[in-house]
Amino acid sequence: MFVIPLIRIIKPIFAAFILFVIAGSCSNKDEVVNFDLTTSIQPQEGGKVTPIDGNFPSDTDVEVIATANEGFVFSTWDGASKSSSKSITLTMDTHKQLTAIFEKLDSDKDGVSDDIDQCENTPQGESVNANGCSDSQKDTDEDGVTDDLDTCENTPTDETVDEDGCSDSQKDSDEDGVTDNIDECADTPIGESVNALGCSDSQIDSDGDGVMDANDECSETTSGEAVDVTGCSDSQKDTDVDGVTDDLDECADTPTGESVNALGCSDSQIDTDGDGVMDADDQCPETTSGEEVDVNGCSQRQLDSTLKTYVPDDNFEKILILLGYDYVIDDYVLTANIENLLELTLKQFHYLEYLDGEPYASEISLPIEDFTGLQDFVSLESLTIIHHPLSGTNFFDLLSDINLKKISFNCIEVVDEFSLKKNIQLEELRINGGGPSSGGCETYVNNLDLSNNPNLKVLKFNWVTFSDIDNVLANIPSLEEFHLLLRTDMPVLSLVNNANLRKIWLETSYSDFKFIDLKNGANDKLEKFVISSYAYRGRNICIEADLPEYVESIITAPGSTFVTNDCDN
């Protein structure tokens, strides 16, 4: 009973639903669908689009056209189309948005739009600046040469340039460091130094003698004087190096070292008295014309009257003969032969006896016992005595009138009174005794008096025994160089009065130095200080100095030597 009524109810409802669906289906076939087209322009001032927008029935074909404004060009579409064609057709099958993109016109395609491009028709491919100008279109320095060809920037105004855009003030054609507008000498050889005008010595002739400065060894040649290939005139040359220029020199080829007169002639080149013997060998000047002379330029008349020096010691005269200053042992020597000598060495050696001008015997000379005759060697500057004992001789008395500058004594044995105080020109004194290999040569010096030698600068004592070295040093404030090797013990050495010392050399093997006083207030003048030892025995040596650090820096000494400003502390 319940099922039948339910069917009755559902059946009408289902029928009504079917009718609704059929009715709805019939209404959709008659409805029209439209779609919207919207457009935009980028940039706004670039152009226009036709149509701007619209509502179009489905499947309608719509033609859209982009038109560029002046100064712009159409580029492409964006949105519903990516075409680059100005005119496109769209089928409206949905809502569509379309953007027309315009670009500023760039006629020469240089990347700079025409509105700001200051250089039209830029050649294809050339880089440009912000103004659209390439180097081939610019002339930055306004010299008439475009920048692409101009190798010289910033040419000064109004200067003439070459095809490379370079003026003379910008070029250095010969690469000498001087620009062409200043350079007075073109084509300077590479590497040569030049003056402010760009000229090297090979390009100028400063003194106008026809020889370029590079080869001219004599600058400032007097105008008009003839010169040799080195640019030197006779007034500028001294070919034989005698101190007289060639234009004045009447004696060419003067031997080296010979003194000459104002005409450039040495005594070996002139014969003043015309006797056939050159002045250098002529012991008798002013020989009367026509007189016969010997090899020494002396006539018999002159020999009879010539001044002679008395030399009573035969050993002294034998040495003078060997040296060529005398010819026969007769207790005399021609004063003219010795009075101009600058150096003299007196030592024992072999000599020959002569008879009628021929040697006939040889023997060893003996020590000189009497130095009489030495006083006439008035020009001596340097005297050396070797193996001639001086004790008991008249040696020192004969030196008083000789302006000696240097004296050397070797193996002079014992000297009790050693005084050189009359030789005020003395600059150097050397006293040498016998070393370990001397075969017994010894030198003892007592009472050495150097109190009146203000010019004494060099003092050298080697293998010598002294009685009072401190007193000697105290009286030589001028001393600059001091060498000392004593044969006696000397624990203390004082140099406090020697403020001019520059060089010191001490040998300590026999002296047993323990204390050296160097407080003379002038340590900074020292250049060299050497302490050595032939037989170093490990002794400690203290050096007391004003400037210990400086003295330490220049000293060469055994490791046990130390420098301080106070050896007591």
TrEMBL record:
Disordered, as annotated region: 112-241
Keyword NADP: no
UniProt entry keywords in alphabetical sequence: Signal
Compositional bias (Polar residues): 119-135
Cross-referenced Pfam families: Flg_new_2, TSP_3
Any GO molecular function: calcium ion binding
Compositional bias of kind Acidic residues: 140-151, 173-186, 204-219
Domain Bacterial repeat: 38-104
Gene Ontology process terms (BP): cell adhesion
Keyword Transmembrane helix: no
Name the UniProt record assigns to this protein: Bacterial repeat domain-containing protein
Organism: Maribacter algarum
